[in-house]
Design a protein that fits this description.
Shape: flat
Helix content: 10-25%
Number of strands: 7
Strand content: 5-15%
Largest sheet: 4 strands, antiparallel
Strand order of the largest sheet: 1-2-3-4
Length: 347
């Protein structure tokens, strides 16, 4: 095998002319491929010596260029040198330092530049003085033109009696004839003396005043003690009925038991006195008053539920109902007292 030394010559690149636009050629018939005979394998006559490791950097690249290249016989393309040169140029490019970065654009330079100093503040401009306010002057109007007074009307001369400043005359107005009347002359007095007048009668004595009402609580029938036993709700609704009951009772009657409820669908009270049983209500303008005498045939019936109670008095063939009694214990007490009073009359 012959060794050949290839020296690299630096060839300046020729200027490349612009290629013309390609024209599509007409398709030609493809030639039939020729049979390729296999090349005989060549065994190396002697072993190659180990190649030294390439040095790094530019010195290694220069040594690679100066070293002789071996060309193997039977190599179809002796262009391996070009591939090694291309690899060497890539290595040179990788070892070269990177180019410096481009300068910043003008906008960034303007942003990074320090701001110029501010100008000193200018003196405030003096404001012009305000113009004086002119006060409007009232206009003087000329005096209005006044027409002369009209001349006096032409009339008959005024009589002296009706002239201005003349004294009035008595009896100037005419009077009808039938309207005059003559007064009788006063009676003659003896010696011109005034007759004596009769003395005035003495005034009658005045009537004595009525006796004063007694002070404090006046309760001859004993309503206050039995009314205090009612509950607050029953007492509040029975105020007017108690006033009516006080007017119905006799002076010698005494109330023994009292309940509040409804009689004839009106708020009222039922009172048991020492003489009778009285039921009243507060019917507007005309209160209803019922007197139940206590006799031997008087029947008392009582009904109650969880809230209220009712008392039914049967007398003279009629039943008198007093309902909606809030105080149920007082209703039971009155029923027992009425039954005991009727039982005492039968003995």
């Amino acid at each position: 095998m012959d060794d050949k030394l290839f020296e690299e010559e630096l060839i300046e690149p020729e200027p490349v002319e612009p290629e013309p636009e390609p024209v599509e050629p007409e398709p030609e018939p493809e030639p039939e491929p020729e049979p390729v005979e296999p090349e005989p394998e060549h065994e190396p006559e002697h072993e190659h010596e180990p190649e030294p490791e390439p040095e790094s950097g530019l010195s290694g690249i220069a040594a690679l260029l100066e070293s002789p290249a071996e060309v193997m016989p039977g190599d179809p393309d002796p262009d391996g040198i070009e591939e090694s040169l291309a690899a060497a140029s890539v290595a040179v490019a990788s070892t070269m330092p990177a180019p410096p970065p481009p300068p910043p654009p003008p906008l960034m330079a303007a942003l990074t530049m320090p701001a110029p100093p501010r100008p000193p503040p200018s003196a405030p401009a003096s404001l012009p003085e305000p113009a004086p306010i002119s006060v409007p002057v009232a206009r003087v109007h000329p005096a209005p033109a006044v027409a002369p007074p009209p001349p006096p009307p032409i009339e008959a001369p005024r009589p002296e009696s009706r002239a201005i400043g003349a004294k009035p005359t008595v009896g100037a107005w005419p009077t009808p004839g039938g309207a005059t009347a003559t007064l009788p002359p006063p009676p003659p007095s003896a010696g011109g003396a005034v007759p004596p007048t009769e003395p005035l009668p003495e005034p009658a004595p005045t009537a004595p005043p009525e006796p004063a009402a007694p002070t404090g609580v006046v309760d001859p029938s004993g309503l206050n003690p039995v009314a205090q036993r009612l509950s607050a709700a029953a007492l509040r609704t029975a105020r007017l009925s108690l006033a009516v009951l006080s007017m119905v009772l006799e002076p010698d009657e005494v109330v023994e038991s009292l309940v509040g409820g409804r009689y004839q669908n009106q708020a009222g009270v039922a009172a048991l006195t020492n003489q009778r049983l009285v039921l009243v209500n507060q019917h507007e303008w005309v209160p209803d008053v019922r007197v139940v005498p206590i006799t031997t045939d008087l029947v008392v019936q009582g009904w109650q539920d969880d809230r209220t109670a009712s008392l039914i008095f049967v007398t003279e063939g009629q039943s008198v109902t007093f309902s909606f009694i809030i105080d149920r214990p007082l209703a039971q007490e009155m029923a027992q007292l009425v039954r005991a009073r009727a039982a005492d009359l039968t003995e």
